[in-house]
Amino acid sequence: MISSHKTFSIRKILLTFGLLSLLVLAGCAGTPTWFEPASPNAALIANLGTAIFLIAIGVFIVVESLLVFSVVRFSRKREGEPAQIEGNTRFEIAWTVAPAIVLAVIFFLSLQTLTSISYAPNYSGGAANSPAGNALRVRAIGHQWWWEFQYPTENIVTANELHVPVNTVVNFDLESVDVIHSFWVPQLAGKTDVIPGRVNHLWFNASQVGAFHGQCAEFCGTEHAFMQFQVIVETPDQFKAWVAQQQAPAATVTGDATKGEQLFLNGACIGCHAVNGTKAQGKVGPNLTHVASRKYFAGAVFENNADNLKKWLANPQALKPGALMPNLNLTPSDIDALVAYLTSLK
Ligand code: CUA
Fold first, then answer.
1. pLDDT tens-digit map of 218-230
2. How remote is the CA of residue 284 from the centroid of ligand 1, in Å?
3. pTM for this prediction
4. Which of 99, 30, 18 is nearest to 63 (CA)?
5. DSSP states of 310-346 as a string?
6. Residue 116 pairs with which residues in a beta bridge?
7. How far is the CA of 35 from the centre of ligand 1 (A)?
8. Which of 68, 111, 147, 171 registers the highest number of CB atoms within 10 A of its CB?
9. Any residues with CB less than 8 A from the CB of 221 and at least 6 apart, and which?
């Protein structure tokens, strides 16, 4: 018999475990999670995740019950050394077949989900959420450590902030200019690797308006964690307005911003950055034509405001160590002028 002292210990362990789990789960509140899908594809993935989780709970209960049963039933105090068995054919078959069945079920469920959400560019008809010919096309290009989004049909280039209309199929061409990244918006679609030298595909059809967090999900260097982006799902009208704004030429600058524009166009900035309609045509860094329209910058990590931009220009490495934006040793008055220019690029 197990003593009451031991029972108490087991209870204590279970209680501690339960409380710790609650704490861990509480930490997840408010974070982007595939438990709250916002597209049919993400819902399929969430269902699969839940199914596998329930199966895992079942396996856990069976295995732990057998373990606890064996510990209690065959304790040395109670039974002495139990009979030693080896090569029991029935047991061997049972514990080979049972896990095989469990894995086969998981394999089947996974394959079914994978087929439902896989990229089908020429698909027509069938499921309501399948990619259609008139879908929006976006090239998502991974850079160390930010995301470029190109809309080839609309002729738009932006960074770290992806706008898409609600209830519209969006087909992505996923590309990388340097190392392997991974495109992941937990609430909208599964992860897909972004590999230099090849084009991968992914699609989703957002079913609710809102802002959704995206994150690079493949370790890609120092600032992997700070390679984020925002997906802004809008009504068709809002999206149309956004497209029109992004297609407009860069704002004409006045006042303090004029000095900043001169510094920008005659300095090192244009080696990496583009502002449409000017001689700045750099392709290495984010296109800044409408940079002030974005909520965040530098991999969607810092809020896009004058204070943060000043800190960024003064010393990018202080904010984001390893960032490829160099420290240009700008004077405070140059920084002020450049920020006046950048914040005018609405
Ligand atoms: Cu890009 Cu991690």
1. 999 999 999 999 9
2. 16
3. 0.82
4. 99
5. HHHHH-HHHHSTT-SS------HHHHHHHHHHHHH--
6. none
7. 23
8. 147
9. 144, 145, 179, 322
Give the distance (Å) from ligand 1 centre to CA of residue 301.
13
Q: Token digits for 299?
A: 């991999």
Tokens found for residue 148 = 């470029």
Q: Which residues of the chain have pLDDT under 70?
A: 1-11, 13-14, 17-18, 20-31, 79, 119-134
Residue 163 β-bridge partners: 232
Ramachandran area for residue 322 (φ above 0: left; ψ -120 to 50: alpha; else beta): left
Which DSSP category does 36 fall into? S
Q: pLDDT value at position 13?
A: 67
Go through 42-81 and write b for each residue having 16 or more CB atoms within 10 A of its CB, e for each that does not: bbbbbebeeeeeeeeeeeeeeeeeeeeeeeeeeeeeeeee
Q: Residue 46's closest CA among 207, 265, 269, 216? A: 207
Longest dimension (CA), the chain: 92
Please identify, by atom number, the ligand 1 atom nearest to the C-alpha of residue 225: 2
Write out the two tokens for 309.
């931009």
Query: Cα separation of 148 and 146, whole Å?
Result: 7
List residues near ligand 1 (CB under 6 A).
Answer: 142, 145, 181, 216, 218-220, 224, 227
Q: For residue 6, with 0-12 CB atoms within 10 Å meaning exposed, 13-18 middle and 19 or more buried, which class applies? A: exposed
